[in-house]
Amino acid sequence: MLVTTSILALAAVAHAVPHYIFGHIASTKDWEVVRMTANHYSNGPVQDVTSEAIRCFQDKPGGGGSTSTYKAKAGGTISWTANPAIYHPGALSAYMAKAPAGQTAASFDGAGAVWFKVYQDMPTSSGGSMTWPSMNKATVDFKIPQCLEDGDYLFRIEHVALHSAAKENGAQFYISCAQLSVSGGSAAKKPTDLVAFPGAYKSTDPGLMLNIYSNGGKAYTPAGPSVFKC
């Protein structure tokens, strides 16, 4: 019985190794300016796109609690760290949501159609299979649009692993939300194509249900809205 238990435990650990979290952005500690996620021990993904967890995968629902807010510059870059690294093939994207009047990044829960996409990577295809630029990266960078209004925002990083996405609900979402205070923006343009989480995705979206190893040469269609551009 002891041997069997040990083998099962080792198998569970081996299975969990490819999973990852996004616990901090550059120059900060884990969960200092990033809301602690429910997978902070397991590193496991979200797979139900209709659940509240698809928003920020928070350990505790609601606002950010004791999480601090990171000072960022519009037009600048923030770097997220994956721990241990992005070990699954799939699409990397990023969204932002502005805290409404009377709220801060710390109190804002991100509910409603408030999210706009600021980044989406795309794969290269060869022989009917897809390869993503984020694969095996431990750090990924995103630019904050220069045309935004100053204020408090949530910044949501999302990597959707697609290695098991040939069946419905096979896509695995690795998600975190950071709290930002953005300054230096020109306020020249308001974000468009706002979406809600949950609500932005369907489990059968072509970007979430596909065989990335044998797709017949079809171009990849990302889930969610188009990227907001200044």
From TrEMBL:
GO terms for molecular function: hydrolase activity; metal ion binding; monooxygenase activity. Keywords: Carbohydrate metabolism, Cellulose degradation, Copper, Disulfide bond, Hydrolase, Metal-binding, Monooxygenase, Oxidoreductase, Polysaccharide degradation, Secreted, Signal. Residues 1-16 form the signal peptide. It catalyses: [(1->4)-beta-D-glucosyl]n+m + reduced acceptor + O2 = 4-dehydro-beta-D-glucosyl-[(1->4)-beta-D-glucosyl]n-1 + [(1->4)-beta-D-glucosyl]m + acceptor + H2O. GO terms for biological process: cellulose catabolic process. Its cofactor is Cu(2+). One of its GO terms (cellular component) is extracellular region. Pfam families: AA9. Belongs to the polysaccharide monooxygenase AA9 family. This is lytic cellulose monooxygenase (C4-dehydrogenating).
